[in-house]
Structure formats: structure tokens, C-alpha cells
Amino acid sequence: MPDTATNSISSLAEELVKVVGKKYVLSTPASLALYECDAETMDVARPDLVVLPGTTDEVQKVVQLANKYCVPFTARGAATGLSGGATTVYGGISLVLTRMNRVLHIDPKDMIAVVETGVTNLAVSYAAAPFGLYFAPDPSSQSASTIGGNLAENSGGPHTLKYGMTIHHVLGAKVVLPDGNVTVFGGRAKDKLSLDLLGLLVGSEGTLGVATEATVRLLPRSRYVETMLAYFPSVATGGQAVSDIVAHGVVPAAMEMIDSLTLNAVEDYLHMGLNRAAGCLLVVELDGPKESIHVQRQIVETVARENGSISLNWAKDDKERAQIWKARKTSFGALGRIAPHGYVLDGVIPRSKLKEAIENIARIGDKHNLMIANVYHAGDGNLHPCLLYHRENEDEVRRVMLAGREILELCVELGGTLSGEHGIGIEKVSEMPMAFSAVELESMHWVKNAFDPRCICNPGKIIPQLKSCGESGMRPLLRHKLLSGC
Questions:
Q1: In principle, which of 118, 252, 328, 425 could form an S-S bond with 97, CB 3.0–4.6 Å?
Q2: Could you tell me which of 125, 115, 144 has the C-alpha nearest to residue 38?
């Protein structure tokens, strides 16, 4: 990886101004500091330049200039990512796409939308709403997170259980490749006549190219939706209820669970009248034909009571439904009342191992003297333990990192994997050998090299390098300092 010498950066900045305008090339220390990390704030690396293009043509020219000067570039949306995917660990250009935020076309007959990738997830659904349609992936950050970020991380959300990940709702993408060429993967219809390059792109975390436009699938809104809020004496009993509901043949639109610590933080924040004495809160949402929901609702109620639910109630209208979801979607923010920083993991386990995982995560927290709050996409086994800490306490940060590593190792041992939706980024790159063999990792290197032989497109992400922090040009990261002494 080349060093980004000061004179090269200065010359590059002058040429970039000619492409996007002076207003959209940022280089002052104060400006650059705003782009030194994403929502994974433990790892900080300041870019040398921030560039905000407004069109695919401008993105292409920026990438071509990055090649000319052999300077790395990292695409960035709203920076709501939680794995450091948008952090410029080798410096260079932070390529910010938030100006490219238009919904270009809605086709209600084919039920698709063509959008620029800087548009927010929720804005796509708003644009489709007059046609009775919406964009199904709904990460908790959907009001801010961009479609480009959704593609990069293959984002999910509470409704992943029934409706799948981003990959299931994307038909095509316009992509600026690492060498500056522009191509299109996929299109308006499924293409089974060639290699699935779109499937390769989605979830590659911006390491294989920069998506500037996307053609996404829209779904009709369900006419009937029922949302239940239930309390259980423990996370284990709530987790068993989740497994039993699916075992009875019910596939809810969503099943979300938060533990007692998180529940009380939410109640302190929102004053909703939540049951503070409960061990956990479970949200179950059903949608579809009215007759089907009626049968499923009876099954869900029976299973909840068989697992010792303290109480349960169904939302009477959209307002109550919104309140229930507000309790879930503000949970991480509410934890800020307990500690100023939170490290959110997203390991995945089989649903049948939920109780075992919960018990072992508590044990890991006790071992490292840490407070761990838990939020779960319980229906599909996607865990979100949030390790609460104080960043100024280096020993506490070190313990958080060690505990996080043990939790990820636990997920793999239970038959799961390292990430359900947040991605690998720089956060879990050192843990990749837990889940993949040396041959598999080498295959990933081959793919990366085929697209990006100069290794300037979001380098340092997903695939472990030979050295964690001594490699030429890499910014020193806090995790390397605390875990490996670099």
C-alpha cells in the first residue's frame, strides 16, 4: 500500500476541485475529523481528503484520479455502519455519496425503483408509498442509512426473518470499478445466464467497487398487520418462546427481543409504562391475509403462555404499533443513559442455541467485569450484545475488545457466524480465521485482486492481512494498540 505523501495529496486535491468544485473537496483538520470513523467509534483513522461527488460521472473521475496518484479511496454514505467499513484505515480519499440522493424512477407495474445510492432507505419507501408499495429491508438506522450502505453491508433489520436481506430486494446496480471503469451488474429482471456478480457485490463492503445507482424491488404493503408486545420472566424463557413459535410453523414478519437492562433504559428515556420487573420484552409482528393472521395469533399467544409470559397485548392501532417499535428501535440510543459508549456486536447463532448463547454471554460479561445489554433479532438468531464502556478508560476498552472476541468465538462454536448484517469491516477482520479456513480466505484474496489489483478500493477490510497494524500506510488503531501492543 503506497504512502500518501503530502505533495501528492495537494496535487490530487487541486485536480479534484476541477471535478467536483472547491465546495466539495474538504481538507482542513476540522473537516476531516468529521469523517474519521463511522458508528463504530472505537477505531478512528482520519482521511487525507473528503470528496463529495454529485453524479456517477464525477465518482468515475474521482476514482480515476485516485488511480493516477495511487491513493486509496473508501466510499461512505451516512456512516451508520457498525463495523468500521467506512473508516479510512489507509487514509486517502473518503468518497462521500450523500449528495447523490435522488429517487430516479418508480415503476408501480413492475414494482421497482431506480435510485441513487446516497438516498436513505426510508426515503425509498416514502417515494413508493403513493403506489401502495415499500422497500422491505428496514435496519434500525433506516431513516438515515443509505441504499449504498445497505448494499455494501447486505443490511437486514427486524423484518429480515420473513422478507430477507438487502440481496433479496436488489435487481441491479451501476458500479464504478476500482480502475475507474463503469459497469452494470444485474438489471430490471433476474439474470441466470451469467455469473452472479451482483450477488458478489452486495455484502462486499465497498471493497470491489462503488455502487452509484441501484434498481431495487418494491413490495405491496400488507393490508393487515398485528403487533404483539409480551413480557417474560427471563431472556431464556422469551428465547424459548421464539424457537417454539417457529417450530409451530409460524413465520412472523418480525420477532425482536430486548433484555431487562435495555428495557429499563428505554423506559427511563421514553416513559412508556413498560414493565420494569420483566426479564425481557418480546415483539412479534404478523402480517398477511386476515384469516391467516387470526390463526397465527392464536398459536403465538398459546406458545407465549406455555413459556410463562407475564403478560401480552396486541396493538390496537397504528399509533400503538409505532410506540411498540419505538421501544425497540430506540433501544441502543437509550443505553447512552447507562454508559457513554457502547460496542454493538452482531454475531449469529442457530435459533435453537439462543438460551445457551444468552447464558454464556452473561458469563463472558462477568468474567471481564463488563455490563452487557442485549437486543436480538431473535427470529433469525442475530444477536446484538452491546458492551457498555467508558472510552477514556483504556483497561475497560481492552476488556471490551477481549469480551467481544470471546462472544464471536462463542457464536461460531455454536454453529453460527461472525456477522448477520453489520459486516466485518475492520471490527471483525482479525476474527475471520475463526469462521473461514486458510483456503477460503485465500480465495477471497483472489476475488479482491481480480477486481482491485492495486488494492486501493477500501483496503484493509474483510480479509485479514499478513500484519495487523505494521503494514505500510495503515493508520494505527486503538484495537491494535490495546490487543497486540503495536
A1: 118
A2: 144
